[in-house]
Amino acid sequence: MTKRDLLSAADLTREDLENILELAERTKGKRSSQILAGKTLGLLFFDRSLRTRVSFEVAAVQLGGHCINIFADREMYDLEPDDQAVMDGLAEESVKDAARTLSRYVDALGIRQLRRTGSWEEDRREVLLHAYAKHATVPVVNLESTMEHPCQAIADVMTMRERLLRLQGRRITLAWTNNPLPKNIGPCHSLLQMAALSGMEVTLAHPLGYELDADVVQSATTHAERAGGNVRVVNSLEDGLRGAEVVYTRSWGSTKYWDDPERETMVKRSLQSWLIDETAMQTTQNALFMHPLPVRRGVGVTDAVLDGDRSVIYEQAENRVHAQKALLTHLLG
Amino acid sequence: MTKRDLLSAADLTREDLENILELAERTKGKRSSQILAGKTLGLLFFDRSLRTRVSFEVAAVQLGGHCINIFADREMYDLEPDDQAVMDGLAEESVKDAARTLSRYVDALGIRQLRRTGSWEEDRREVLLHAYAKHATVPVVNLESTMEHPCQAIADVMTMRERLLRLQGRRITLAWTNNPLPKNIGPCHSLLQMAALSGMEVTLAHPLGYELDADVVQSATTHAERAGGNVRVVNSLEDGLRGAEVVYTRSWGSTKYWDDPERETMVKRSLQSWLIDETAMQTTQNALFMHPLPVRRGVGVTDAVLDGDRSVIYEQAENRVHAQKALLTHLLG
Amino acid sequence: MTKRDLLSAADLTREDLENILELAERTKGKRSSQILAGKTLGLLFFDRSLRTRVSFEVAAVQLGGHCINIFADREMYDLEPDDQAVMDGLAEESVKDAARTLSRYVDALGIRQLRRTGSWEEDRREVLLHAYAKHATVPVVNLESTMEHPCQAIADVMTMRERLLRLQGRRITLAWTNNPLPKNIGPCHSLLQMAALSGMEVTLAHPLGYELDADVVQSATTHAERAGGNVRVVNSLEDGLRGAEVVYTRSWGSTKYWDDPERETMVKRSLQSWLIDETAMQTTQNALFMHPLPVRRGVGVTDAVLDGDRSVIYEQAENRVHAQKALLTHLLG
């Protein structure tokens, strides 16, 4: 049997996603089968985490399993992702050997790494994640990378289905908001792909310079059309929100200014109107409000929206556990 | 059902304390019921810990549960405790959202944070701990804060009951000792309140400038008198020890010099006689010797006292596990 | 019953080693008995770890137990190993009190500490490890120290037995290789002793200045001769490899230049020929290739050797789990 990784939303077919969501919905809040009894997951964190780390460990525990969390920068040494390197630099071990070794110990690996070297072309390649996936003989799960956060997106789609039932043809707007510090674009890429796979009508609303990755948008457009939906881009928040049934927001960093954060800070000064408040929400079709968290309250989104009765932000957070239990069952069960 | 927190000794009634202690005594050393099977505790450490962290995790494991330890300063990002803040500073998430999210994942939260901003009035408010308690929908347990360490105090009272059986009317002296680095006052505040609740005759022996918090002393005095005991303060170690049946010692930092550590260092030079040795212990009524640890051996207390046959320091440490198992049963069972 | 520690390979008799290996071989890959159910291991890491940490936790989980990992430098405070010290320095607690306290909580302790103070005579005494072993009342296991790594060596011997069946009289060469950064000598000391205990014919091949510890070599020689083997030293890699049935390699730091790393760097410039490649391996008797990892690929050993069909490096890594399950059963079962 080939091992199944989940590095990108693109690793799931429409049928895979459907199966995972149905299992998550069926087992939510139910006593779990102990399918991970005696099994261990090795989770490598190169970046900070609250939701992902805790929700994964809770998911594993509820299935009878055990997580070994490794805070890689402090608890391990530098690893060399390149197979061909002569290792006379800082790295004391190759990803190849670490991945092969860990595969003898644990039943699946999870990896979080958000790179910011200054070169978007370099960072979007996600060299470390793909080196682990290449050499590990157990499934590798992306716990958020530069490009993707598929575990978040599965929970997001699950949350929409709970409220809207059928997603095909429903209008979701993925809206950029302003924020002093750029956040990772990964959750948006994954959500876009899974919404497309679900046949939703997706509007991407962002200023010029904040385009999502062109390959991801292209692939999502293809999938959306195949599933009866579509993807369009607008550069006005007002146009984006009008008539939306779901508003999903996140303040992501520009890949265009990836190597020039100071210029991005300047650009953002003229983008103060990219803010979701109650007035903005009134132009939607009584839309659900979604955000993957963390969120800076009062910055980009007002408290009234975050705490309003159309907000499902804590349901999204909670569904991480249920979605991940279903995912682990899909990968390892 | 309202959730029960344990932020302060004051959160326990006399009956609560009695129930917890009876359960701890009854189940000490016995095979544990698995009341936490499939349950998880999220423990947030903003400060270092040995006893609390390990004893809590062992308690949870013996009850079938699982602890997720989060070393907050390194593994999470800054959190904003103020509900009303516009979050354009360092904090990337509000305590509100973190507490609400974690409450969807874990069955209880524990928090250790010892603040030292330089303002005692600010630090004694324990803003972060109270923000978590306000927003979490699961029980929050204080794992040691600026003001309190109730889990230590329950274990301390348990240890006294094992040796003295009935505590009402027994004479305990809580004695300050000298130490190059100030330690947290919290364990003293919690022990004072629980000794008072148990009807003990409590003597606080400390130099001028080392007063316990006035509100805590006031409340403890009321509780002690109601329970048949009393609280008195002396500023002489000799007076404090005379006739004591229990000597409980700890070198706490002065809240008076909270904003001026250099002045405290000067003041302490004249307090070298605040030391517990065998000669000092001979003036007591063959008193038990107690210390919550860690202790600097030879500094404040001699090895002969710490290792003497009236010392119960390791029993106190061990009883952390049994007391916390009973506490978790009380809160979650 | 006296507690059993495993601080050094010398703590195991030939019969102990035989029993542990037989148990490991018998239970490898089998469903584990839950002999650690409800039990906890406290693992103190003063240095980074991948294999040891993960393989120990997996071993414990498979036996139904639970590891509490403590990253000592960040999560605890300084501890004083000397019983007699007056603790007016940095240390806030004695090893005595920490070890006694932890012994009330956990069923065994593991400790990793690699010291490099600049004095080999000081560091080889392993003061902290021995202070824990002295004061703990539960078994203490060495998770790699300045002098030893017995858990690695048990897995190494297990791996050789799987391939060679009977070890008595088999020729193993323990060969130094060149490496920009010196690695710990401990795995070599432990492997030497266990190979000797198994009656192997051991060749130590290293340049002048890279001698193993004289006491360890002396003791291993005695044990080897008693068990029908022997120990010899050569200062030529070519001589060392000729006719070997097992090549075990590691680039260890010189204890002679322990206080003068710059001089060692100079010395190593003339030792570039200490490299294991396919040509070097052809002079052996089709030897197994072993390495305890981590390894710098292309430095000291070529990829062709590491990935060749005589390499058992991942079997060594995997056997850590099986050997440690047997060890834990031996110590605690």
Molecular structure report:
Three copies of one chain form a homotrimer. The first copy, chain A, is of the alpha/beta class. Chain A folds into two domains: 9-149 and 320-332, Rossmann fold (3-Layer(aba) Sandwich); 151-316, 3-Layer(aba) Sandwich (Rossmann fold), CATH 3.40.50.1370. The first copy, chain A, has 14 helices and eleven strands. A five-stranded parallel sheet of chain A has the order 9-8-7-10-11. Chain A has a four-stranded parallel sheet with strand order 2-1-5-6, with helices on both faces. In chain A, strands 3-4 form a two-stranded parallel sheet. In chain A, helix 8 (186-197) links the parallel strand 7 and strand 8 (201-205). In chain A, helix 4 crosses helix 6. The longest helix of chain A has 20 residues, at 313-332. The radius of gyration of chain A is 20 Å and the shape is globular. Chain A starts with 13 loop residues before the first helix and ends with a helix. The mean pLDDT of chain A is 95. Chain A binds chain B through residues 31-32, 45, 48-51, 53-55, 57-58, 61-62, 71, 74, 180-181, 293-299, 313-314, 317-318, 321, and chain B through 38, 40, 42, 66, 68, 70, 74-77, 80, 85-88, 91-94, 96-98, 100-102, 104-106.
Q: How would you state the average pLDDT of chain A, rounded?
A: 95
- Which architecture name of the largest domain in chain A does CATH use? 3-Layer(aba) Sandwich
> Low-confidence parts of chain A, pLDDT < 50 over ≥5 residues?
none
Helix content of chain A: 40-55%
Q: Which two chains touch over the largest interface?
A: A-B, 30 and 28 residues
- Compressed to H and E, one letter per element, the order of chain A equals HEHEHEEHEHHEHEHEHEHEHHEHH
Oligomer kind:
homotrimer
Q: What is the strand tally of chain A? A: 11
Globally, the shape of chain A reads: globular
Major β-sheet strand ordering of chain A: 9-8-7-10-11
Largest sheet of chain A: 5 strands, parallel
Strand % of chain A is 15-25%
Number of domains of chain A: 2
CATH class of the largest domain in chain A: Alpha Beta
Q: CATH superfamily assignment of the largest domain in chain A?
A: Aspartate/ornithine carbamoyltransferase
Helix segment count of chain A? 14
CATH topology of the largest domain in chain A: Rossmann fold
| Rg estimate of chain A, integer Å | 20 Å
Structural class based on helices, strands and sheet pairing of chain A: alpha/beta
Q: Separation of termini of chain A?
A: 13 Å
